[in-house]
Amino acid sequence: MANNDGGTQWTRKDEQAVQVRHAFKSYGTKKNANHVLNNLNMTVAKGTIYGLLGASGCGKTTLLSCIVGRRRLDSGEISVLGGRPGTKGSGVPGKRVGYMPQEIALYGEFSIKETMMYFGWIFGMLSKEINERLQFLLNFLDLPSEKRLVKNLSGGQQRRVSFAVALMHDPELLILDEPTVGVDPLLRQSIWNHLVHITKAGQKTVIITTHYIEEARQAHTIGLMRSGHLLAEESPSVLLSIYKCTSLEEVFLKLSRAQNQKTDATEVNFSNNISSHTLSFGSKTDKPGTSEDGIVGLNFHQSKEVLINDANGSVYTLNQDPMALPPPVPKQKPTKSSFTDCPKCPDLDNITTSGKLKALLIKNFLRMWRNVGVMLFIFALPVMQVILFCMAIGRDPSGLNMAIVNGELNGSISECKWTPGCHFQDLACRYLSHLNTSVIKNFYVDLNDAKNAVRTGKAWGAIYISENFTDAFTARMVLGRDADEETIEESELKVWLDMSNQQIGILLNRDLQYAYRDFAMGLLEDCDYNPKLGDVPIQFKDPIYGTMNPSFTDFVAPGVILTIVFFLAVALTSSALIIERTEGMLDRSWVAGVTPGEILFSHVVTQFVVMCGQTALVLIFMLVVFEVTNNGELFWVILLTLLQGMCGMCFGFVISALCELERNAIQLALGSFYPTLLLSGVIWPIEGMPLVLRYVSLCLPLTLATTSLRAILTRGWQIYEADVYYGFLATLGWIVLFLVITMIILRSKRG
């Protein structure tokens, strides 16, 4: 300390555990901003218990989030343990702070021991240290067996486990949000005794919020908070003496009324800046105030405290003569924090990296393994999808009823018979015999009855053969170009199809034409003519790629493989971060020092392992069990499928980071499924789309990858072909893009 000529006394405050100066924080737009913190000042001395009291919505949780580095102020300054939260080397968030949020924020699938091991590894503790600390906490907090799952504990027991997590690594700063809710009174007092004990040496500091206002009498200092302001910040005994109240509730009520009325600006300003230095108390211990204390301390008109920042960012207390004018305190919002980083603090940023990754990976696998529904979803669903696809898609329809009117039967509806050989008799029956087995022949006498059968859905088509078909067909062959119109018409088969189902209509059209070709070629061959005379004069050679009878399954299979793997990964990851966020575990992990990159990396590793299993099952059933055509190298098939799974995983992370609620994530994931499926060329070639949709299609993650996999499977192309490597490059590009977007969203939501 130093004295100047004017009698002013300066006191350095570098040894405070937490200092908040001119803190502003609001949510929403500038026009409709919700001001949560409004020019708030707060000081927490090292080695003390600081009780932060206030009604719900006053800004306590936001203030604590800013202190632990979970959120950032709009403007103002925060110093925690000598450094700015979130800066390199500060250890906050990280190992130097222990945080117990208001919600339980624990994994229900974990046992008590597994919970402690998880957080202990995050804090860089060895397993031996964790076990020793665990035994102490089990006894101290009267917890049940360490093997009990958290979800099977009572509400009070879960809160005690949450408290034990905050105490696990013996932090320098302990921040507890409502730690004694639902706790037995005897255990509550034991907790307070422990807090007093750990702060006695002056190395541990505790900030605690509680709705038991009278419970806060045991704190060294309390801050009464309302509407984003600290109404007072002093020891309980001093506040009771100043305001001549018997309870802290009365004190809070008086200060709240004074804040509302704002009739005496000087008195209100004094209420916001009371300190033990002003009241001449040597320490902020929780001793009951005596009458003498009140006489000595209540020197309202002799001194006031003004907080001054020097050029180096240090904070001083100015005890000034009452006759001198105090230096003005700026009321405008400061632009940026003037606190420097903590150069003397140990560099804790990289100490626990391996432990954190170990904890995060084990946590992800353990949660997945213990959730039977998730395991069935992971491994049973892709197999079921492949089986259903291969059995239901691509096969020719069968059991198709055709209404046939054969005029050559002279009104009979019995199935006609014919004899093979070179003769021109019963040609109608000879033609009908070449219809394949997928067609069921139903004979009618009247043509109108046959058409009505089609109209009523009893048949897929009606065939009419005239009573002079054989004679007309023979005359047509003999006369050739001299055949008259009547002869030509009588020799034709007339067909009326139900084209409401395009696939069935096209297949029937094909089968009827194939049947006529086989009929004509067979007749010519029996008569020792060249059967090619009866074929269409177009000769189809063996195809360069594919077969003479292409399968629709082979066309759709590449897209289906990638779609299954892609959207299963989306489904698994789209809710991963949301579940942890709603449970409070994401915030708790961040406060413990886990970075968004580490969280994202752990999920990527976990989901990649799962995805390898899914990919193996999909490809085994698709290529081995159902023998889908594969003319390419299996390595490139596997690699592209895995990359598409990673792409879906990263897209799921974007959804999970973007959405606050799980239902919103589900809606977004489902909403993206059908446009992607329809526009990616999976079930219909993109060449059949309008030009605008083609460009849209090329901007989707599955389009080029589907083209690439189709080229590998059906054409056997290698990686150096453009259609192949474009799919790989596009997939890698989407993976990087989705990861970058996820990181940007996660970092922005920490502010």
Tell me about this structure.
There is one protein chain. With 751 residues, the protein is α/β, with parallel strands linked by helices. The chain is built from 25 helices and 17 strands. The strands form 4 sheets. Strands 7-8-9-5-10-11 form a 6-stranded mixed β-sheet, with helices on both faces. The longest helix is centred in the C-terminal third of the chain and has 30 residues, at 596-625. The relative contact order is 0.08.
SSE blueprint and pairings:
Layout (H helix, E strand, L loop, with lengths): L1 E2 L5 E4 L3 E12 L6 E12 L3 E5 L6 H8 L7 E6 L16 E4 L11 H11 L4 H14 L14 H13 L5 E5 L7 H15 L5 E5 L11 E6 L2 E6 L1 H7 L5 H14 L3 H7 L19 H7 L7 E5 L5 E5 L33 H17 L2 H21 L7 E7 L20 H6 L6 E5 L3 H9 L5 E5 L3 H11 L5 H6 L3 E4 L4 H25 L25 H22 L2 H7 L2 H7 L4 H30 L8 H25 L3 H18 L11 H8 L4 H13 L6 H28 L2
Parallel strand pairs: 5-9, 5-10, 7-8, 8-9, 14-15, 14-16
Antiparallel strand pairs: 1-2, 2-13, 3-4, 3-6, 10-11, 12-13, 16-17
Helix pairs in contact: 2-3, 2-10, 10-20, 11-17, 11-20, 17-20, 17-21, 17-22, 17-24, 20-21, 21-22, 21-24, 21-25, 24-25
